[in-house]
Write a structure and sequence with these properties.
The protein is an all-alpha fold. Helix 8 crosses helix 9 and helix 9 packs antiparallel against helix 10. 72% of the residues lie in helices and 0% in strands. It is built from ten helices and no strands. The model has no long low-confidence stretch (mean pLDDT 88). The termini are far apart.
């Protein structure tokens, strides 16, 4: 006699969360359906039912990871205040993001950079950049917002890769240079 199937509407989300934990702990090379199933405490078949390939799972994980910085930008009311200097606000925000969430930021960049070798991730990586550009465009213009995203990415990667402490004043000055009108 067949057992009735358990209804578990959160299982897919738990699998994605488990994939994020596995990648955070072991890197993308440590990700497999088996390691994710063990981490999520679900049968192996559940991971392959919800995600036919590891790329599908990585896409879902990157979507979830992308929510962090864009949400932080949108929630930061100080950036919207007319008296706020955008360069100062962004430099402070980067400092908070790198300081409080360093392990999470490393995970997000690992997934983001995985798009170099995994074409399925490229649209999601591009979506992250476009989200940040959309959030910043009202404070400048789309071209300048794109330059701000590139600069913030560069600063974050340098901090993460070199282990050098984040320098908020340097970030503020560089962001201000990008925001200065051309002469």
């Amino acid at each position: 006699m067949a057992r009735p199937r358990r209804h578990d509407p959160e299982r897919r989300e738990r699998i994605v969360d488990a994939a994020l934990r596995v990648v955070g702990r072991s890197g993308i090379s440590g990700l497999s359906h088996r390691t994710v199933a063990a981490e999520a405490d679900v049968p192996l078949g559940s991971t392959t039912y919800h995600f036919a390939s590891l790329d599908e799972l990585l896409v879902a994980a990157l979507h979830k990871a992308n929510e962090g910085f864009g949400r932080l930008l949108r929630e930061r009311a100080a950036l919207a205040a007319p008296e706020t200097d955008l360069a100062t606000g962004l430099a402070r925000l980067l400092g908070e993001w790198l300081g409080d969430r360093r392990a999470r930021v490393e995970l997000e960049y690992e997934l983001y950079l995985a798009a170099l070798r995994r074409p399925a991730l490229r649209p999601v990586a591009a979506e992250w950049a476009e989200t940040v550009v959309d959030v910043l465009s009202p404070y400048s213009d789309p071209v300048t917002a794109r330059a701000l995203v590139a600069l913030m990415d560069g600063i974050c990667l340098q901090v993460l890769l070199t282990g050098v402490a984040y320098d908020e004043e340097y970030a503020r000055e560089m962001l201000a240079r990008v925001l200065r009108p051309a002469r």
